Amino acid sequence: MYPTLTQCAIVATAFKILLFPAYKSTDFEVHRNWLAITHSLPVKEWYYEKTSEWTLDYPPFFAAFEWVLSQLARYADPAMLVVKNLNYDSWQTIYFQRSSVIVTELVLLYALNKFVKSVPYPSQHLAHAASLSILLSPGLFIIDHIHFQYNGFLYGILILSIVWARKQSTLLYSGIAFAVLLCLKHIYLYLSLAYFVYLLRVYCLDPKSVFRPRIWNAIKLGMSVTTVFGLAFGPFASWGQLLQLKGRLFPFSRGLCHAYWAPNVWAIYSFTDRILIPFAPRLGLPVNDDALSSVTRGLVGDTSFAVLPEISKEHTFGLTLIFQLLPLIKLWRRPNPDTFIGALTLCGYASFLFGWHVHEKAVLLIIIPFGLIALKDRRYFSAFRPLAVAGHVSLFPLLFTAAEFPLKTIYTLFWLILFLFVFDRIAPVPERPRIFLVDRFSLLYITVSIPLIVYCSLVHQLIFGLEQYQFLPLMFTSSYSALGVVGSWVGFMVVYFTA
Amino acid sequence: MAPPTPAYRPRKKRKSAALFTNSNSSLIVGAGEGKSAPTFPLVSFLWGTRTGVSQWLLLPLVLMTVGLFRWGVSLWGYSGFQVPPLHGDFEAQRHWMEITVHLPLSKWYTYDLQYWGLDYPPLTAYHSWLLGNIGSVFDPTWFALDASRGLEDPLLKAFMRATVIISEYLVYIPAIVTFLRRYARMQAVPVWSASIALSAILLQPATILIDHGHFQFNTVMLGLFVASLDAILAGRMLWACIFFVGALGFKQMALYYAPVMFAFLLGVCIFPRIRILRLLCISLVTIAAFAVLLIPLILGATGAEARKNLTSAPEPPLLQALPIELDQGSSSYAILFQVTQVIHRIFPFSRGLFEDKVANAWCAIHTFYKLHRFESDFLKRVSLGATLVSISIPCAIIFRHPRASLLLPAFATVAWGFFLFSFQVHEKSVLLPLLPMTLLIAGDGGLDKNTRSWVGWANMLGSWTLYPLLKRDGLRVPYFVITCLWAYLLGLPPTSWQIYSHQDSSDASPHELTRVIHSTFYLAMFGWHVLEAFVSPPPGKPDLWVVLNVLIGAGGFGISYLWCLWRLINQSWRMDHRAEVQKKRK
C-alpha cells in the first residue's frame, strides 16, 4: 500500500515546517504561558497563578506534559519560560513550540500504524486510506499547525485507545489510555459514556451473558483507572485544591454559543431567531429588546434570544444526555468494535450539536472517530461526506489573515478532492440498499459551499468593506456548516441503527 | 485500400506496449516477482494512479500540492527585508510597479536611476504596470509615488507573493504542462511516468526558493521559454519566435538560450533542404514581435511633454556612439533616445566581470589569480571568446541536426556555457541551465537511475550554491526543507544512496565514475554545511566559506556542462548512426 503513512508524514512535516512563520492565535501565547508556569512555579501554585489572563485550565497531566516540554525549552530560549514575559515570541520560541507540535504528533502516526495493522487483511487498504485521511486532516492542519494546539498528540492517544479496544486482550490498556487522555484534556469527557458502557459490557461482564460478571477484570480496570486519576488529581486533592481545579477546568460562566457560533443546533436556533425578528410583530410574538444587539456581536457571555425561548444549561445537558444514551443502548446490546467506534462518533455528535458553549474546534471529536469507520461501506461514506465538507469549512473563520487564506482553502480543497474521490472509489457496496435521496442532498450541499466561501472571503468585503456587517459571513458559514453537521448526524443515526 | 492499415496497426501497438514496460521498469522494483514496490518515494505518492486516473483529477491535485509548498516558502523572508536604505529585489519589483503606475512611459527608464531604476526589458515594465494597477485597487498607498519606498506591510507582502504565484500559474505552469504532454507523447513515455516527471519538475528547489523566497519573476521568463519549446515540438516555428521574443522581452537573461534558438531556427530552414520562405517568415515575425514589444514605449516617447522629459535626462552612451546627428527637438531623436536608453539600461556593460560571488569560471580563477590586474576591455573580450568556444559545439550540432529531440541537452549545454564563462553572471542565473536539464527527466528513460542521478545532483548543487544568498534573506529553513524534500522524493543523497547501489545490474544504473563524482560532491556539500554552521572562518578571511562554496560549485557546474555536452553528442551520434543503418537497408 503506497504511499505509506511514514512517507506521507515526512512530506507533511516538510510542509508544516514551512508554516512556522504563519499566523498563530492566542493559543500560542496560552501554551507559552503554561510552559512558563509549570517551569518556574512549584506544583502547588500551578492552578493559582494568574499573571496572564490565559491561566492554566487543562487537567494536571497536560500541565505535566508542559513541564516536560519546558525542560527542553530551556535550551531553546530560557526567556520564554519567564511568567512575566507576556506575548513573548522570539524566533527560538516559535521554532521550539511549533516543532514540539510536530514531534508529539508522532503519537498519532504510531497509533494510525497500529490501527492499520489491527484490521484484518482483506480490508486493510480501507484502513490505510482512512488513516491517511486522518494523518493529513485539514482540521489538525488548521488547528494544530497554524492556529496552534496539540490535538494531533491527543487524538493519537484516543486512536491508540480505540485500537486497543478492538481486542479482548488489550481492553485494559484501552481503559488506561482513555483515563490518561481524560487527565490530559477534559473535552474527551464527552466520549466517556461510550467507553464506560463498552468496557463494562465487554470487559467487566461476560460478552455472551450480561449476568455473569467477571469480577477480577472489574477490579483490575477499576484499580487502574483510579490509579491514573489518583496520580493526576491526588496531589491537588491532598493540598485541598480540588475546588480551585474545578473552577479552572469548568468555567460555567460562559454563554451558550462561543464568540463565533460553532456549527451546531444552537447556531441554527440563533439564526432562526435572527430571521424571526422582522416577522415577530406580525406573528404576534414578543421581542426581547436586550437581545437585539448582543447575539450578532458574539461577545463571550450570556447569549440571549429575541424571539425564541431562552436555553438553559439544563436543557443542553439533558438533550446531550438523551442523544448520547440512544446509541449506547445499541452498543450495550451489540458490543463489537465497529459499533463502539460508531457510538463514540454519535456521542461526539450529541455533545457537539447540543452542548453548552461548544468550540468550533470540537468538531474534530466527530470527524476523527468517524474517519476511522467512514469506509465501512458506502452508506457510512454518504453520511461522512457532508460532515467532511461542513466540519472543515466551519474551521475557516479561525484563520482570517490574508496570507493564510490560500493555505486553509487550498489545503482543505486538496484534501476533500483527494479523499472524497478515493473513498468513493474504494468504499465497498453495503449489504442494505442506500437511501437514494441522501446522496442527491449531499451533492447539492457540497456544491453550495463554493459560492458560500467565495462570498464570505471576497464578495462580502468588496460590497460592505472590512468593517460593516462583520457577523454576516460568520453567521452564514456557521449556519451552513450546522446544516451539514446535523444532516450527516441524522444520516449516520439511520445507518448506525439499521446496521 | 483498407487491408494494409490493420496489418500495420497491431505491430505499432506491440511496440508501444514494450516501450511502456521498459519505461515503467525504472519506477517499479520487482514488478515480475509479484511483490512490486516503487523505486523512489515520489513514485509511491503517485502509486494509486499507475493504472490510470483522469488527468482532470490528478493535475489539479499535483498543482495544488506544489502551490501549497510555494506559498509555504513565501511566508518566510524575502530579499532586502528590513535592510534599509536600498532593500532588495522585493523592493525593486515593488518600486517598478510604483513608477510604471504613476509616471508617463517616457520617464520609466530615466526616473531616479540611483534608486532601483528600471533595468529589465519592456515586458517586465508592462507586467509591473498591470500588477501595480491591480494592487492599487486594494490599497493605493502600497504604490504611492516616492512615499511608498521601503514599505513593509504584511498585506503588501501577501499581495506581492500572490502576484508571483499567479504569474507563475498563468505562464510557467501551463507551458510546462503542455510541453511535457507533447514531449512525453513524442518520446513514447507513458502518462504515469510523465505525471511523475511533472511533479518532480514543478518541485525544482532552486526555482521555488528564488521566485517565492528571494522574490523574483523568473518563472514568467522561463515559462515563455518553455512555451516556445512547446511550439517547436508542435511544429509552429513562428509561435516559437513570438514566445521566445516574449521571454527575451521579459528578462534579458533569456539570451543564454538565444544561440541555440538561433542555430536551430536557421538549421530548420537549411537542412535537409534550403527553405528561403520559412527563413523569411521567421525573421519577419521575430522583428515584428520586437517591434510590438517596443511600440508602447515608442508611442510614449512622442509628444512634446515626453520629448522634454527625455532630453532632460543624460544622453545614453549608445546614442552618443551613433554616427548620425539628429536635431534634439525632433520626435525621431526622442524615439531613438528612448530605445537606446532602454538598451543601455538592460545591458549594463559598464559593470564588472562578475558580481558578488558566483560559482562560475571567472570567480573561481579570481580566487587564485586576481583578475583585477587586467583591463576590463580585455577581460570582456576573453569572456566573450571563452563563451563562444564553450557554446560553439552544441550550436554547431543543433544547426546541423535541427531535431526537436536534441533541443533540451543543447539548451542545457549552452546555458551552462554562458553561466560558466559569460560576463556579469548572477548566482540566480543558475536557474537557466537547470531548467532544460531538469526537463530531461520527462524524456524516454528520463527517470532511470542514470539521468535521475545527474539531474538530481545538478539541482542539489544548484540550490546549494544559492545558500549564501538565501541565508542573507532569512531563508535558511525553507532552503533545507525544500532541497531535502526534493532529494527525498527523488531518492537522492543525503536521504538515500539507493540510486548509486550495485544491487540490480541493469545497464541504466550510473557508471562507476558518476558514483565517485557525485559522492564526492555530496560529501563536500554536507561537510561545507557543517563547517559553515559550526566553524567560524579564520580572521582576515571572512568570506572563506563562500569562496569554498563558489569553487566547489564552479567545478560541479563544469562537470554538468560536460555531461550535457556528452549527452548531446551521444544522442546526435546515435541519430546519425540510425539514419545510416536505415539508408543501408534501402
TrEMBL record, chain A:
Supply the enzyme class, top level. transferase
**Keywords noted in UniProt:** Endoplasmic reticulum, Glycosyltransferase, Membrane, Transferase, Transmembrane, Transmembrane helix
- What are the EC numbers? 2.4.1.-
Please give one Pfam family short name.
Alg6_Alg8
Instruction: From the Swiss-Prot or TrEMBL record, state where the protein is found.
Output: Endoplasmic reticulum membrane
Query: Where does this protein chiefly localize?
Result: endoplasmic reticulum
Quote the InterPro entries the UniProt record gives.
Glyco_trans_ALG6/ALG8
Q: How does it sit in the membrane?
A: Multi-pass membrane protein
Q: What superkingdom heads the lineage? A: Eukaryota
Any one GO molecular-function label of the UniProt entry: transferase activity
Please write the reaction equations for the catalytic activity of this protein. an alpha-D-Glc-(1->3)-alpha-D-Man-(1->2)-alpha-D-Man-(1->2)-alpha-D-Man-(1->3)-[alpha-D-Man-(1->2)-alpha-D-Man-(1->3)-[alpha-D-Man-(1->2)-alpha-D-Man-(1->6)]-alpha-D-Man-(1->6)]-beta-D-Man-(1->4)-beta-D-GlcNAc-(1->4)-alpha-D-GlcNAc-diphospho-di-trans,poly-cis-dolichol + a di-trans,poly-cis-dolichyl beta-D-glucosyl phosphate = an alpha-D-Glc-(1->3)-alpha-D-Glc-(1->3)-alpha-D-Man-(1->2)-alpha-D-Man-(1->2)-alpha-D-Man-(1->3)-[alpha-D-Man-(1->2)-alpha-D-Man-(1->3)-[alpha-D-Man-(1->2)-alpha-D-Man-(1->6)]-alpha-D-Man-(1->6)]-beta-D-Man-(1->4)-beta-D-GlcNAc-(1->4)-alpha-D-GlcNAc-diphospho-di-trans,poly-cis-dolichol + a di-trans,poly-cis-dolichyl phosphate + H(+)
List membrane-spanning regions: 94-113, 125-142, 148-165, 172-198, 218-239, 362-377, 384-403, 409-429, 441-463, 475-497
Q: In which pathway does it act?
A: Protein modification; protein glycosylation
Annotated function? Dolichyl pyrophosphate Glc1Man9GlcNAc2 alpha-1,3-glucosyltransferase that operates in the biosynthetic pathway of dolichol-linked oligosaccharides, the glycan precursors employed in protein asparagine (N)-glycosylation. The assembly of dolichol-linked oligosaccharides begins on the cytosolic side of the endoplasmic reticulum membrane and finishes in its lumen. The sequential addition of sugars to dolichol pyrophosphate produces dolichol-linked oligosaccharides containing fourteen sugars, including two GlcNAcs, nine mannoses and three glucoses.
Protein family (similarity comment): Belongs to the ALG6/ALG8 glucosyltransferase family.
Q: What is this protein called?
A: Alpha-1,3-glucosyltransferase
From TrEMBL, chain B:
**Where on the tree of life does the source sit, at the highest rank?**
Eukaryota
Pfam families, alphabetized: Alg6_Alg8
Alphabetically ordered keywords of this record: Endoplasmic reticulum, Glycosyltransferase, Membrane, Transferase, Transmembrane, Transmembrane helix
Keyword Chloroplast belongs to the record: no
- Pathway involvement? Protein modification; protein glycosylation
The enzyme class is: transferase
Q: How does it sit in the membrane?
A: Multi-pass membrane protein
Transmembrane intervals = 53-73, 158-180, 192-210, 222-248, 254-272, 279-299, 406-425, 454-470, 477-500, 544-566
Q: What is its EC number?
A: 2.4.1.-
Cellular localization per UniProt: Endoplasmic reticulum membrane
Predominant location of this chain? endoplasmic reticulum
Belongs to which family?
A: Belongs to the ALG6/ALG8 glucosyltransferase family.
Q: What is this protein called?
A: Alpha-1,3-glucosyltransferase
The organism of origin for this protein? Aspergillus lucknowensis
